[in-house]
Design goal:
The protein is mainly α and about 60 residues long. The chain is about 85% helix and about 0% strand. The protein has one domain (about 5-60). The termini are close together.
Length: about 60
């Protein structure tokens, strides 16, 4: 795995964790449903992004 792709995976994982933390805080302060669903969707898309980045790395054959 090249350094550039490793950094990309780290960046996407960090963003996903930020959405998870924001979701936990939103639930704790009893935020609107829109805010909670935004955090849920951000987390889900983050996991898709992590999977995509790992698959892209495996396909590149570097």
């Amino acid at each position: 795995m090249t350094t550039r792709l490793r950094n990309a995976i780290t960046l996407v994982a960090f963003g996903t964790m930020c959405w998870v933390i924001a979701g936990v805080i939103a639930v704790a302060v009893n935020a609107d449903a829109k805010v909670i669903w935004t955090c849920v969707m951000g987390t889900a898309l983050g996991f898709v992004g992590i999977r995509y980045t790992i698959r892209r790395d495996r396909r590149s054959g570097i």
